[in-house]
Amino acid sequence: MISLVRYLAADVLRGQRFLAPMLVFLGVLGMLFSYDPGPQLSAFSGSAALIYPIGAWLAVVVATSEDVVRREITVVSAGGWPRVLTAVAVTAVVFGLAFAVVATVWAVVASPRPYTVPQVLAGLGVHGVSVLLGIGVGLMFARPVFDAIGRTVLVVFGVVVMTYPLGRHTPLGWVLDTLGDNQVTLSTLWAGLVGAALVSGAVVLGVRRV
């Protein structure tokens, strides 16, 4: 499994399609933290809201990095779709967590307010949960659930856009709501469990679709 994840990660890096979400992510982070974003935990709310769609975008990039023929070869070589889809999910999560670390460190470095170790760990947690939710959404509608990339993009975009007006009725809303009060509560943990369930469910759904 580790070698398969390494292969998929190398393929994503070689294809360079990760550059688009990465540049958007870094550009918006630069704007978010170009001024005092407020109290320590509240400052994470903007970047946590940002990393959710970025996570969905990354998941689609990882899931579609190979063309159809190459993916079939990978499936045969790896021993079946379950192993490949699990590796895709793990690879997407690894990339997403790397973005979560960047978002947390950026906020800590850019803020004029000092951060304690628990606050930094809380930042890693909320960014990790938010990106996990996005990855779950992205994988849920990526190949092999939808073979056409256009359909995947439209559906993922629609789900992501609809998440924000629903506010606290969504797991992402639970995270952002607590950050708005400059605290992190158990609702963030529940949101993380939902994110993990989405990623796992996407793997199961993909296996059933093939």
Number of strands: 0
Mean pLDDT: 88
Radius of gyration in whole Å, from Cα? 17 Å
Distance between the termini: 20 Å
The profile of the biggest β sheet is: none
Helix content: over 70%
Coarse structural class:
mainly alpha
Structure description:
- Helix 1 crosses helix 5 (81-110), helix 2 (19-32) runs antiparallel to helix 3 (44-63) and helix 3 packs antiparallel against helix 8.
- This protein is mainly α.
- It is globular and about 50 Å long.
- It is built from nine helices and no strands.
Ordered list of secondary-structure elements with their pairings:
Elements: H1 2-15, H2 19-32, H3 44-63, H4 68-78, H5 81-110, H6 117-140, H7 149-166, H8 171-180, H9 186-209
Helix pairs in contact: 1-5, 2-3, 3-5, 3-6, 3-7, 3-8, 5-6, 5-9, 6-9, 8-9
Structure keywords:
mainly alpha
Provide a quick synopsis of the model:
This protein has helices spanning 2-15, 19-32, 44-63, 68-78, 81-110, 117-140, 149-166, 171-180, 186-209. The chain has 210 residues and is mostly helical.
